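Re: that chain you flagged

S.,

Sorry for the slow reply, it's been a week of failed gels. I finally had a moment to sit down with the sequence you sent. For the record, here it is as I used it:
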Amino acid sequence: MGIDVTAERVVPLPPERVAGYAMNWRHDAEWTQGIRTAELTREADGGGFGVGAEVTRTAYFLGRRIDYVLRVAAHEPPRLLDMVSVAGPMPMHVTYAFEPHPRGTLARIRVRGGEGGFYRLAAPLLARQVRGSLVKDLRDLEARLVEQV
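Prediction finished late last night. Pasting the structure tokens below so you have them in one place:
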């Protein structure tokens, strides 16, 4: 069994605003833990960012540099962005979801992956670390957006 971690937070702004910022790869390094750079390395079939596009991220996790590529599997603004890794040290699936909430937007991030070998053994530690990072990501996402208001 690999990891399957979800974190959520209510952000006091409309879904279009929250998703518009969070689903834009240009902002990845501003609010996502450990990411130093993000670059659109393959455009969607119709051009720009959408299904089939690939974003290459350089991150630091547990003190190690990690370069990985995420391919967009679903892009339904302002509701959903679903990405799967196509290159990197660990197979993963990252889903961002945004739903209207009485106090703004319920923002949710889910990370699944690390199915075999070392990752199966390290799953409890990795899950704890990933959950902590996701909680901080959502906190930082809210802080960034609220300071722009």
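What I noticed first: The chain has a mean pLDDT of 91.

Talk soon,
D.
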